[in-house]
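Project standup — Tuesday

K.O.: blocked on the structure for the chain from last sprint. Re-posting the sequence here as requested.
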Amino acid sequence: MLLCAGMAQAAPWIEPGDLRMRHSLQVLSDQRSLHVPLTTWPVMWVGVSQSLAQRAVFSAATSDALDYVQFERGYKERDVVRSELTLAASGSSTMLRGFSAQPREELQAGIAIDWVGDVFAASLSYSYFDDPEQDTKKQRFDGSYLAGNVGNWVLGAGAIDRWWGPGWQSSLILSSNARPVPSVWVSRKAPSAPEWSWLSWVGPWQLTLIAGQLEEERFVPEAKLLGARLTAVPLPGLELGFVRTAQWGGVGKSESARSLGKLIIGDSNEVGEEVGNQLAGYDFRYGFAAGGVSYGLYGQLIGEDEAGNAPSKQVGLIGVDMATRWWNGSQRWFLEGVNTSARDFEADPDFNVAYEHSQYRSGYNYRGRNIANTYGSDATAYTLGIIQFFENGQNLALLLTDATLSRDGDSVAIRHQRDPSVRPQIPVMRQPLFHGVLRYERPGLGGWLAVQLEYTDQPVVLPRDDIPEKWQVMGSWRYRF
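H.V.: unblocked you, prediction finished:
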């Protein structure tokens, strides 16, 4: 077992990966104790702190959630410079990833050092991977960033994980499934409501814009990843999201102002003159509480094409969740379904459309993994999740997924894989499977221990080989100092 760079928490924002933190924030929101957007990760600490400060009284149903959020916030405010060390090992790199943080390779090593000031914040995160399976990058700086405040805006550069959408197990447009793409970005620091009276109904809102650099070893080398996400909370418990991403430019493609302008206004799909590979869509979540129990309904629709100035050839995600307080702790229950076959809701599915493209033939992938979701194109997946958060700080999660991957048994991205060092996480054949995850986390050895057991009822056949083990075990230990 070696050292690995874990999820750095000493930052002006809350990064994706901590299930207890996400559960706690959602409970506070559903119980009407928090009024900020929560489906665009990272979530800014300023907005959370300001919203909680406006509440004078909290109900008993929010006590555990509030304690954890305040504990994490207190840690961030205690010192200016913080460091984090993590040990991790795994039987092999997992193909199916969700919201929770997991090791990316078998043996990993690293350290993260963060500095947070009044105006600037920075993190240097170094990782070493022994004999990596997915690519040959033994040394990585994923998680590093430099950011600064300009008024109520945060400008940053680096490679940080993101999760755009309400799903607990998947996102259809941007998630932490792939390694973080090196990017520059701008986002609002505090998601306060508009001051103009005629826009006050919008409620707290958040806007994030990113421009990232994809890898060189792809069909269109050095293509750019552009993204924009706007979320708003017009009513307590109701969050609406509008999102758009595009692969644009790269070697052999125009990167002129005219090309970018056509992409921005959506004039980019004319046959023979396509200037980008775009995704766009909407999502929502509505949560409410009754009798100390909170409930949520959420969904996401993402289009792979454009028709009538609106996304078309859509893929979808739908889910329900519930938070309870039983058995000396709190629980999160969710049932989530995802379908990544284009137009499967309205007609016969269009295979090899979602996350594929006639010109950007490496697909909507970064270093072999789908930028949006772990299941990739032309898949269906249904996940039941049960997570127990004990009062003593321990967590126990059970995730059961019934999925069919690569329903037509084909992929444009596989046929145009350009980097021989990358092992694409794309099935080469139709792959029905059952996937189960049991994850246990607790304080230990002065830090934080996590052990995860995975079961897959049959090997997932990948382009070069398969994952023969039905059972996989991984473990990690994170220490803050």
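K.O.: great, moving the ticket to review. Residues 63-78 form the longest helix (16 residues). The chain is about 10% helix and 45% strand.
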